[in-house]
Design goal:
single chain; flat; mainly alpha
Length: 67
């Protein structure tokens, strides 16, 4: 039974990882990792500020959209 639960947890974890990557929900975590790797002394923005800046940038510089 524990093998089944462990397998289910791994599967759910993989699906969660995949879904967050496809939807872009992991963008903040990836940005923080990048920032710490390339500019360790830089100030890391809050998650709220990151998303605010990201959406403002998307409005200023629209890319391919369906609508």
């Amino acid at each position: 039974m524990t093998k089944v639960l462990a397998s289910a947890r791994r599967t759910i974890g993989a699906l969660r990882w995949y879904w967050r990557g496809v939807t872009g929900a992991d963008a903040y975590e990836r940005y923080v990792e990048y920032l710490q790797r390339t500019c360790p002394d830089a100030l890391v923005p809050s998650q709220k500020q990151f998303w605010r800046d990201k959406y403002e940038d998307m409005e200023r510089n629209p890319k391919a959209r369906c609508c």
